[in-house]
Amino acid sequence: MISLNVCKCLRGAQGPFVLHPAFTIPRGQFVVLNGTSGTGKTTLLRMLAGLETPDDGRILVDGETWFDKNERVCVPPQKRSIGFVFQNYALFPSMTVRRNLEFAAGRRKDPRVDMFLSMIELEELQYRYPEELSGGQQQRVALARALIRRPKILLLDEPLSALDEAIREKLQEEILRLHQELGLTSILVSHDRAEILRMGDRILVLQEGGLTCEGPPFHIITRPDEKNGSGVISAGSGNPARRST
């Protein structure tokens, strides 16, 4: 279970504001985080991962304190069981696709590397470097690298937005399969209606520094409420059918 109640001063397009989210996520839940640009969604993920430090508050994961301002506790990122897929890929430019995955797996010739190369359909490009790949191809490598580590928590910052529809839907299914098989707790930042409905157990809408509403995706997206996030969720594409549970 993730229990987060933190605050951090940020500067947005309209000036300074305080990001102050507070929520609890049960183990195994797939949560979608939605909100307008500049509301702190990426910063929230980075604080959970330990890549940014909150100004105040507390983060607990499965009963373990990862951050507590008052107790002066801040677990370093490498000791948090988290896989993170960034918007900007964050691949090692001096490593080939295969070597990026081997590095994440922790050893060369790991059988999981071939499995993930097949999953992201980049077997033929496995010896190329990131600069030789398209943006969509780089994002697929970044996704595989995060999943190959078998983390407890998977953080996804719009990882599929650069992919074509067929690959995006395939990877959505693969993410959901691994989410279930590995018992992950996952948080996905997304503005795509079909993706949210297909993948999310629950949606959290972040606006004005805090959570304005939360609940089942279909209910939040379709109800006529100015604060429900419907104004920042795109129509998306593909089949929005919800996964079976």
Automatic annotation (TrEMBL):
UniProt keyword annotation of Transport present: yes
Sequence ranges assigned to domain ABC transporter in this UniProt record: 1-233
Signal peptide range in chain numbering: none
GO cellular component, one term: membrane
GO molecular function, one term: ABC-type ferric iron transporter activity
Pfam families documented for this protein: ABC_tran
Alphabetical keyword list: ATP-binding, Cell membrane, Ion transport, Iron, Iron transport, Membrane, Nucleotide-binding, Transport
Chain segments carrying region Disordered: 223-245
Record-given protein name: ABC-type spermidine/putrescine transport system, ATPase component
Record lineage: Bacteria, Pseudomonadati, Thermodesulfobacteriota, Desulfomonilia, Desulfomonilales
